[in-house]
Design goal:
Residues 43-247 form the Metallo-beta-lactamase domain. With 293 residues, the chain is of the alpha/beta class. The chain has helices at 2-29, 67-75, 93-105, 121-133, 201-211, 233-239, 259-267, 275-278; strands at 35-39, 48-51, 57-60, 82-87, 107-113, 136-139, 145-147, 161-167, 183-188, 191-195, 219-221, 243-246, 272-274, 281-285, 290-292. The protein has two domains: 1-30; 32-292, Ribonuclease Z/Hydroxyacylglutathione hydrolase-like (Metallo-beta-lactamase, Chain A). The chain is built from eight helices and 15 strands. α3 (93-105) packs parallel to α4.
Length: 293
């Protein structure tokens, strides 16, 4: 009789655990109409995780090493082993090395990549990993839109979230990797995020000539980790963000962010956050306004 009671108690405990796990998953999957964007603290490199209101997820770049897996575990539930879209903006190691581990550990549906051909062992390893994963591959071109869905119809007041590709505007396999990196703008309702990879000022100013005021965004990821070769005055003026974010490692050998860049952000009155000093920087949008979490 005592053994029967023990078995019954164990069974109830297991059932309660299952119910709690299901409840936790259901609660976590309800984004309550919020878009979350996290600039991950992965050292000297770039990695941005987007969690759309629909539940679709995007990872832009993966940093310089397997540390990306640790950071993803902080922004994704433990049971989630898939990512809808991965975007290696260009084949430089500080952006894509970590994606090799991501492709190995997660199920990836779509990879949107630059046409720039890297000539390093890391770039080739990423190409091999993408082939092995078997995800749908898309070469990024200006004008493409990546639909991230919504939690309801526009008539119900739930706007769609989407990523628009701003650059490159042509196939550019043999240009400098930074010139050919994938610049995207994330839009949700009235809010937006400018994600400018390592694009130099020549590309930024070209986008100004094409898009002008349409570049305005609430948040700007400072190009090239805050290098002096990015964040031109014209680009900063037209993007006119509420926040700037430096994605970089502490005490990096490049001196990022450059004093010139810091001065330009200050000149435009743009407050900045820094993954070195602030850790992972996360923003939340309800489609009307953006707040830091």
């Amino acid at each position: 009789m005592r053994r029967s009671a023990q078995i019954k108690g164990i069974a109830i405990a297991i059932l309660l655990t299952i119910v709690l796990c299901i409840s936790y998953a259901a609660w976590h999957e309800d984004r309550r109409g919020l878009l979350t964007v996290s600039f991950l603290n992965i050292g000297q490199g770039d990695s941005i995780f987007i969690d759309a209101p629909s539940g679709r997820q995007v990872l832009i770049d993966g940093g310089p090493n397997s540390g990306i897996l640790r950071e993803l575990s902080k922004v994704m539930p433990w049971y989630d082993r898939s990512i809808d879209v991965v975007i290696p903006t260009h084949p430089d190691a500080d952006h894509v090395s970590g994606l090799i581990d991501v492709l190995d550990r997660f199920k990836i549906s779509t990879v949107v990549h630059s046409s720039v051909q890297g000539d390093t062992s890391t770039a080739q390893a990423l190409v091999d990993a993408m082939k092995q994963e078997g995800a749908r591959e898309i070469t990024a071109r200006r004008g493409q839109v990546i639909d991230l869905g919504s939690t309801g119809s526009p008539q119900a007041g739930r706007p769609h979230a989407y990523l628009e590709v701003l650059s490159p505007d042509r196939l550019a396999p043999h240009v400098d990797t930074n010139d050919g990196c994938v610049v995207t703008r994330l839009v949700y309702g009235k809010t937006s995020f400018m994600l400018s990879c390592d694009a130099p000022q020549t590309i930024e100013n070209y986008l100004v000539s094409l898009d002008g005021n349409a570049l305005h965004s609430d948040v700007l990821k400072a190009g090239h980790h805050g290098s002096k070769t990015s964040s031109s005055p014209s680009f900063l003026g037209f993007v006119n963000p509420e926040y700037g974010v430096y994605s970089r490692g502490c005490n990096n050998r490049y001196g990022h962010p450059a004093p010139e860049t810091v001065a330009r952000f200050a000149q435009f009155g743009i407050p900045t956050l820094d993954t070195c000093t602030d850790g992972t920087v996360t923003f939340v949008s309800d489609g009307v306004s953006v707040k830091r979490r």
